[in-house]
Amino acid sequence: MVLGSVAAVPSILISVSDGLWSIAVVDCVALLWLAFIRRRRESPFRWRARNFICLLYLLGLALLLKVGPAAQIYLMAGPVMTALLLGLRSALFALALNAATLLGVGYYANADIHLPGFAGAPLLEWIVITINFAFVNALMTVSSAVLLHKLEISLQKQSAITVSLAEGHERLRESEALYRATFENAPVGVSHLDLDGRWLAVNDELCEITGYSRDEMLSLRYGDIAEPEDVEADAPAMAALLRGDIPSLNREQRYIRKDGAPVWVHRRTSLVRNAAGDPKHLVVVATDITERVRYEVELEYQATHDALTGLANRNLLNDRLEQALAGASRHGRNVAVLFLDLDNFKIINDSLGHGVGDELIKSVGERLAGCVRDMDTVARAGGDEFVLILADAESENEVATAMSRILEVVAGLYQVARHELHVTCSIGASLFPRDGADPETLLKNADAAMYRAKEGGRNRCKFYQEEMNARLGQRLSLAAKLRHALERDELLLHYQPQVDLRSGAIVGAEALIRWRHPELGLVPPSQFIPIAEETGLIVPIGEWVLHAACVQAQSWAAMGLPRIRVAVNISARQFRHKGLLESIQQALRLSGIPPGYLEVEITESMIMYGPEETIRLLRNLKDLGLQIALDDFGTGFSSLSYLKRFPIDVLKIDQSFVRGIVSDREDAAIVKTVIGLAHSLELRTIAEGVETAEQAGLLRGWASDEVQGYHFSRPLDADAFIGRLREGRRFVIDG
Ligand SMILES: Nc1nc2c(ncn2[C@@H]2O[C@H](COP(=O)(O)O[C@H]3[C@@H](O)[C@H](n4cnc5c(=O)[nH]c(N)nc54)O[C@@H]3COP(=O)(O)O)[C@@H](O)[C@H]2O)c(=O)[nH]1
Q1: Residue from 499, 546, 569, 633 whose mutation best tests the ligand 1 pocket (most atoms within 8 A of CB)
Q2: Cα(120) to centroid of ligand 1, in Å?
C-alpha cells in the first residue's frame, strides 16, 4: 500500500497538472482497489492475491494503452508477483496472458515501440518484441518462482529441523525425567562414581543401605565403605572391566555402614565410556542381601551343627576329619579320633525325663569343648555319643593323657535343674594312620574301642586293637542268636546260696541266668546281659527269669524242703518298663510263692537318678509284699539322705569291697560302716563275693546278717541246689 501510494500519488499529481485526466483516474482507481484489498484481511489469501495481480495487470494494460511502452514494467510485475504469491503454474498463465496482451495491444493499438529492420513487418516486429519481453519476464518470473520454491524448501527443512529439535528436546526431557525417577525410586542402591572411586551421584536406597546421608556419601570414596580385602580382591577384575575384557563386574561383598555394622550387598559394576571410547564413569547397582546371607549362614550352621549343643554334627565332623587327615598325610602326623559315650545315660533320661537328659548332654558338650585345643573338633554324633578329633596328635601317650583328662572332666558333678548328677563316660580311640586311613574306618574302630571300654567296666578309655572289630562282629552275631534263645529254651537258672551268718543256714538263693547255646556252649551273663539290655531283649528275658525263679522256689517248698527266699536280678531297663509290676504279679500268682519269699535286686546305679520316680516304683513293688535288695551297694553315688526314703529291705555290699576287707583297711572300714549304716536304717545286709573263711569271719564279727560267695558255694544248677538244700547243712563261720 505504501509502495503503491509512493508510486501513484506523484503520478496523479503530475497527470492532473498536465491535464492527463485518464491516467490520474487509472491511478486513483488502482489506489482505491489496493486499499480495498488491504481492508479485506479476513478474505482468503489467494482471493486477495488474485485481486492484487488482476489490479497489476489491468494497471499495466491501461498504462500501456495510455502511456505507451514505459508501462511494460507494470505488465512485467504481474507474472513475477503471481509466481511469488500463487506459484509457478499461475505465473506461467500470467506470463502467457502478458505476452498475448503485449502482442495484441502493441500490434493492434500500434504502441509506440519500434525495432530497426522491421519497418515493413509490424506483426513480426511485435512478435519479436513480445518474445523478448516474454523471455525477460519469464526469466524474472521463473527465477522468482525457483527462488521462492527453494526458499520454501529451505523453510520447510528449517521447520522440520526445528520440529525435530523440539521433539528431540522433549524426548531428552522425558528420558531425563524417566531416568531420574528410576534412579531415585529404584529399590536398589544406584550410584555413579568417577574412576578414582569418588561417589558422584547416589540414590536414597544406597543412603539407606549405608546409613550415610546423600551429602556424606558424596564426600566419600568407594574404599571408605568397602572392606579393604574386598577392594584388593576386586583389583584384577576392575582392571579387566576398564580394559573392556568383561562387560560388568558382579560381586557379593560387605559395605561398612556408618554405624560400623557390616551390610552384605550384591554389587554390579559397569563402565560408561565417552565418545572417544575412554572409560569415564562407573555405574554401581547394589542390592542389600544381608537377610539372604544371614539365612544362608543360618542354614549352613544348621546343616553343620547339632541343634542341642551347638557342637559340630556328623556332616561337619566328616569334613573336619577329612581335612585333618589330609593335613596329617602331608606333614606325616597322627590324628586321634575319640568316640565317647556316656555311661548309664539312658537311666537318667528315662528317670528324670528328656529335658534333664538334654541339659546334661549340653553341659557335657560344653565341658568337652573346654578340653580341646582350637585346632581340635568336638562333635555330637547323636544321642549321648560324642566324637573328638585331636588333630596333630603327637603320640599314643599324648592321646592317653588327653583321654584321662576328658574322663576326669566329664565325671564331675552336674547341677541340672534341681538335680545333682554324676555321669561318667567310656572312650574308644583310633589313630591315623595306624588304625585306619579314612574317616569311616577310624570312626568305626574308635566305636569298637569304646564298646570294649564299656565292657571293661565303664568310666574308662581304650585304644583300638585289631581284634576289637572281630569282637564287635561277635557281639552282633551273639545278639542275633540271643533273639532265639527264649523260644529255643536255651536259657536256664543257676542258684547261689545266701547264708545266714548267725545260724550258718541257707536262707536264700540268688537266681543267676545262664545261656546254653548248642554251638557256643555255656555263655556267661556278663557277655549276653549287656547285649540283652541294648537290644531290649532283657524285658522278655527278665520276665522269663521271674517266672522260672518263682516256680522253682515254690517247687522246693512243695518238695518239703525248707522255704527260702529267691532273689531275682532286675535290670535297669526292666525296672522302668511299664509291664514289670504286672509281670511280677503274674509270676507270684502262677507259681503260688508267697510274695515275702521273692526278693528283687536292683542296683544302686538304677536308683541314682529321679528319686521321686524310683520311690514310686519301689513302693509299688513293696505294696506287693516283696523284699527289695539294693545290689552292688557302694559302687554308685547314691545319696544317703535318699537311702532312708527308699522302701528297701536289704543292702548287698558289693564284692569289690568285700574282696579287700582282710588286706585293705579302707575296704574294711567301708564295709563295717555300711553294715552299721544299714542296721541303723533297719536294713538287712548281705555281703557278696565272700571267698575265704577269713572274710566270712570278719563279716560275722561286724554283724553282717548274711553272706554269699564262692567260699560257701558257687552258683549251682537247679538239681545241685536241691541236693544242697536236702543236705540241710549249716556252715560253720568263725569270727
Ligand atoms: N538282669 C539280670 N542280670 C543277671 C541275671 N543273672 C545274672 N545277672 C548279672 O550278670 C552278672 C554276672 O553274673 P554271674 O556271672 O552269674 O556272676 C554272679 C556270681 O557268680 C558272682 N559271684 C558270686 N559269688 C562270688 C565270689 O565269691 N567271687 C566272685 N568272683 N564272683 C562271685 O557274682 C555275680 C552276682 O553278682 P550280683 O548280681 O551283683 O549279686 C551280674 O552282674 C549279675 O547281676 C539275671 O537273671 N538278670
Answers
A1: 569
A2: 173
